Amino acid sequence: MRGERADAELLSSGLASDFGCFYDRHVGAVTAFVGSWIGQPDVAFDLVAETFARALERRLQYDPSKGPGVAWLLGIARNLVIDSARRGQVESESRARLGMRRVELDDEQLEVIADRADVRLRDALASLEAFQREAVIRRVVLEESYRTLAADLRCSEQVVRKRVSRGLARLREGLERR
Amino acid sequence: MKDPFVILRDELVEAAERVALPAPRKRWGWLRRPSRPVAVLLAALVIAGSAAAAILSLSASQPLVGRVPGAFSSASLAGFGYTIRVSPGLGAGGAGWQPWIVYSGPGTSGYGQTGGVSAGYPSATAPVFGGGSPPGGCIPCYARGNPVEYVLTGPQVFAVRIGSQTIRTFTSRALPTGDRAAVFFIHARGPVSVLPAGERPPGIKNVIFVVPLARSGRVIATEPKPNVAPWYEPLPSTWMAPDASTRWWPLPGGSMPYHGRGYHQPAHPGPGVCELSQHGLPALHAQFGETIAWITPVKDALGEVFLSCIDAEYYLHGWPIEAAVLLDGRQPGQVPGPIPGARPVPGQPGIVDLPTGHFPSSLFSRNFGVTAKRVGDAWLVAQGGYDLAQRVQVLNALRISKLDLHHLVSLRAARCWWNHVNRGESGRACLGESGGQ
Question: Which one, A29, A113, B37, B76, has least CB within 10 Å?
Fold first, then answer.
């Protein structure tokens, strides 16, 4: 991780290749996160694609002071999953606006997606230390504020931020090792 | 076999290259002043006034409910019936319309899709507010040629130019009051995007550009709508029942990833301008919802628009039903107009229904029918459920227990609040301002 360029730098540089690096860095975590909610690989892939398309559109809105890039991405993914469930279809507005083609998937590709989406996120979370796990879940999944977390956990916001950040980094490393 | 994640990466990097390109110097170059002969013709059209329709070569629109030309075939949608409707958006704090189209044919349960240019409402500079077939909306529809397209517009649009055709728009009681539509058949395979002219996303294929025309024949200038929700929309406060994790999530085998000790999300609706209560139907459980703390009237809307001040997802015998309270969007507190296309329900005075049927091809195969009743100066709405009878049952069990129209916030105050919140401040001082725009 040392020497790795920050997410904020990759998102704000304006270089397409940097966004590719950002994608490489986080696609595993996003796929696992979406896969833990969605059982259908084609739908999961659609959600991953829309998540990154939305991130590309909103790349300049990412504020590193509010948390690591992967938390921002998982927040986008979470909202998309909920919106898609409530509306009955996967949203595709960002991909349409960006002129992205729909990726036609054959059976073999669906298997690849199913394999990567089948990461037991709970297992991966279980590998974290308890204090990191709680911080990650409450911040990323339940979207609680750092202030609330700090008050509940009786520590400073800075400590909570570190726990979330380190927990997510560990989670990402674990998912990438697959 | 190419790894789909690599394909997606390539697509994203290409898209990133496109968005990184500097904007063309003349973004609205296509709206350049017309050449002299065209200018003369347009001037003549203006002078001729209502005779413009006779001078323009206008095609008649197809109806909102009709049949795809050709003999029925299992490989296409030829011979299928189609129905185009709009239903109100129910999300708290939002205003606008959700357009949809359903194809039905013998021997099938039908295909349907919601979607459009962007769910919303027409304004002076964004007169086209619905239509098109977004990628991913209905895969069987694309596979079968996706033959019917439509455009929903504001009252100021007399006709739309689509390629070499100019199609006259029409009003209908199935559309929001004042709004118009044009429906046409196409012969395309694959996703088709209907976009206002000038908004072409680079690289996108199968685009149908829509040029809105005024009665005079003049092209109505449009501006792209912002990609994100308008800054002045109040952010809804979300809540979810503690037991919702096992009930509300409609995906097989899915559940909230975590609902243990750390679960501290609001478990009940927060205070808001509107509240719902229920009685007499113990099996009805509220699972999920949103409330808003103030109302910002939708001043730029042309035509009818509703504004939702609360929405909640209830479950009744395993069926999800979304309930909401809708106000007149432009002047909350005034009696809102009719629900487009809704008809009175026999034996249920004051209740109307907009049947949509199921959307079998959608992700969750849900019923999107809308049933509503007037309560004072609002609509109490139920959407989804098993059928009309269930929606009526829910409507009769719900009450609007609070409707506080004193928290109208002007656009200026909302902008002030937004700026404060973006700086990490509370912004409450801004909301001391009240009144309309």
Answer: B37
